[in-house]
Amino acid sequence: MRTSTKVSWAIFILVCVATILATVWVTLRLVKREANIRPVVILQSKSSASPAPSPTAYSTPFEALESSTAPPATSYTGTLDLIIPVSGVRADQLLDTFSDARSEGMTHDAIDIPAAAGTPVLAAADGEIIKLFLSERGGLTVYQLSVDKKLVFYYAHLQGYADGLIEGRYVHRGDVIAYVGDSGNAGPGNYHLHFSIATISDPKRYWEGSNINPYPLLHR
What we know:
CATH class of the largest domain: Mainly Beta
CATH architecture of the largest domain: Distorted Sandwich
Number of domains: 2
Largest sheet: 9 strands, antiparallel
Distance between the termini: 136 Å
CATH superfamily of the largest domain: Glucose Permease (Domain IIA)
Oligomer: single chain
Strand content: 15-25%
Number of helices: 2
Radius of gyration: 38 Å
């Protein structure tokens, strides 16, 4: 009887030890498994599309392009009903400075219309104001899109904008849009309007175009 009891206790102890060892083994396996798990990180790829470019701060909107690619201004004679964009200036007072040399080997690609500081700047034609822009060279500037969306009129070195002028506003020929100044690289006291016209193919990229000479279109 004593021997049987001892055997029973021995079996019971062995079973308990085996149970404990099995529990420990399972626990260790679970711990090891958890340690090997790595979080899955989902990387959100950035869009490969480039943002729409902004206009470069040139003294004219299109001086980075060769104006020789533009059609001659005479091809627009009779098709554009423009006015001189500075109040009180007559056609015989205009000077053709379109081909004048400028710094860095560039040409002017525009005409300068001298006037007293604060003289009203007029919209040369009907069209939408698409950009009011401050640049290092042009100072305060206005970009205006023609009605047919094929031309951009550029007004620079302004003293200020007319009250209520905002991007997206449609203006009519002769409306006051700004005032003559000497902002940008015009030089202190060198009050004049820098005026250029450029042909464009995409109105959304209005700063990319080819300049045409405004002089024959205004000197009529």
